[in-house]
Amino acid sequence: MFDIGFGELLLIAVVALVVLGPERLPKAARFAGLWVRRARNQWDSVKQELERELQAEELQRNLRSVRQSVQQTERELQDGATQLQGEVDALRREVDAPATTAPPATDAEAAPEALPAAAADAVQEQAAAVPEQRERTP
Q: Among 18, 24, 39, 134, which residue's Cβ finds the most Cβ atoms within 10 Å?
């Protein structure tokens, strides 16, 4: 950051020793270390606060996008339900309408119960015809 090398640090230490003297130099070094530590702690707390704010913003953006997608899905479901209800109503009208205006049905469609009865009559007629044929043949 400041681009200070070892030689420059040595020069600063020698100047501090000359200016402060050997008695006050340890106190000054402790004092400087204390202020450097406090500055680092402040910087770290500011950095952590910024990271928390960024995470909160990201969570809010994600929440907004999820809400929008849920609302869009809800609208699509409502539209689908409305369309489905319309189709069901149309089918009900189609089912109810032919019962009142249905064209006359053919014999096979009109009386499905009559088909088995007609078949049974035909079988009885054939059964009656068989003994008559036996009586005629010598």
A: 24
